[in-house]
Amino acid sequence: MTSKRKTYRILSFDISLSSPGVAIVDIANGKPKIIAMSHVKTDSKQPHPLRTDIVESWATLFIAKHIGKGFDYVIREDFHGQSSGQNYPVFAAWSGVDRAVSKFGLTFDKWQEVGRGGRVKWLLGIPQSKVKKLVVGVGKAEKNEVAEAVRKWTGYSGEFVVDDESDSAAIAVAYGIQAKLITKE
């Protein structure tokens, strides 16, 4: 008798207003594989509401193209800016992507952090340093190190058009590692 192992499909976003990225990563038998990636660039001279609509439209079209097989997890990187000037553009883009995701009846999965003394916190996404620590092994890794680690984990040999694509794939890989869907080498 043959047993079928589940393939997990992760839709992951690296969200910004200037150049958000998205990736779909399938995990089968503990091994992640990049299925699709995309990004969009907005014009900083345009008003935030227009740029937010562009991000939402891009995300909607990407999800519509790939919704057929569904998604087991929908995740994003967490963000904590130091000022409203940093927060507003990112959270505007979050809103656009949230609207796109909700059009398909999807919601973002929360990220569980266990702190000192076993205190559990639920975050809206995976902290950037946690993505780097899980995927690269170093919480302050550079962009090129993240891309190289994603290649190692996934076997991906194509080009990452922008860092936002490799970053979005890294977010999916980090989630898979933390959820024990990916077998460490």
Short structural summary:
With 185 residues, this protein is α+β, with helices and mostly antiparallel strands. The protein has helices at 48-66, 84-102, 128-135, 143-154, 163-178; strands spanning 7-14, 21-28, 31-39, 73-76, 111-114, 120-123.
Question: What does this protein structure show overall?
Answer:
The chain is an alpha+beta fold and 185 residues long. The protein has one domain (7-178): Nucleotidyltransferase, domain 5, CATH 3.30.420.10. It has helices at residues 48-66, 84-102, 128-135, 143-154, 163-178; strands at 7-14, 21-28, 31-39, 73-76, 111-114, 120-123. It has a four-stranded mixed beta sheet. Strand 2 (21-28) and strand 3 (31-39) form a beta hairpin. Helix 3 (128-135) packs across helix 5 (163-178). The mean pLDDT is 94.
Order of helices and strands: EEEHEHEEHHH
The oligomeric state of the chains shown is single chain
Determine Rg (CA atoms, Å). 16 Å
Shape: globular
Structural class estimated from helices and strands: alpha+beta
Strand order of the largest sheet: 3-2-1-4
Span from first to last CA?
A: 28 Å
